[in-house]
Amino acid sequence: MILDILEYPDSRLRKIAAPVAVVTADIRRLVRDMAQTMYAAPGIGLAATQVNVHKRIIVIDVSPTHDDLKVFINPELVFAEGESGYEEGCLSVPGYYDKVRRAGRITVRAQDERGEPFELTTDGMLAVCVQHEMDHLVGKVFVDYLSPLKRARLAAKARKKQRIAV
Ligand code: NI
Known about the structure:
Blueprint: H1 25-40, E1 45-47, E2 57-60, E3 70-81, E4 84-90, E5 93-102, E6 105-111, E7 117-123, H2 124-137, H3 148-164
Antiparallel strand pairs: 1-2, 2-3, 3-6, 4-5, 6-7
The structure holds nickel (II) ion.
Nickel (II) ion is lined by residues 90-92, 132, 136.
């Protein structure tokens, strides 16, 4: 099932996600729906917060062939070093891209869709994507890192868009 994606500046994007206590069949269904929603958008990452479910779950697929789904339940960064900067976009901020400073190399600890714990050390686009999606789980959107001027312009544009929405 394709889920609705919240758009900035929706205040529900500011909610803090709660940890998943047990990976149940319902959680696995949500993970499947999130993956389907991400692929359909199309996007390379999606956090549960963006579909108005405030649980610590993210899905990512940065592969060019869109067949390498990574599921992170209760993700925690256990290590981060170096610096990276990509032009980032977000399914909740359609049409806007900007460079954000992130750690270059990270180790993330999480559970997969079966509830199995794993640890992943990665860099490049996947490392940036994990950091971007984990921000969503604590109510942060990538545009929060922009200068106040850029943010004000973006907010004005978003308000205008809402006014003409029918
Ligand atoms: Ni995003």
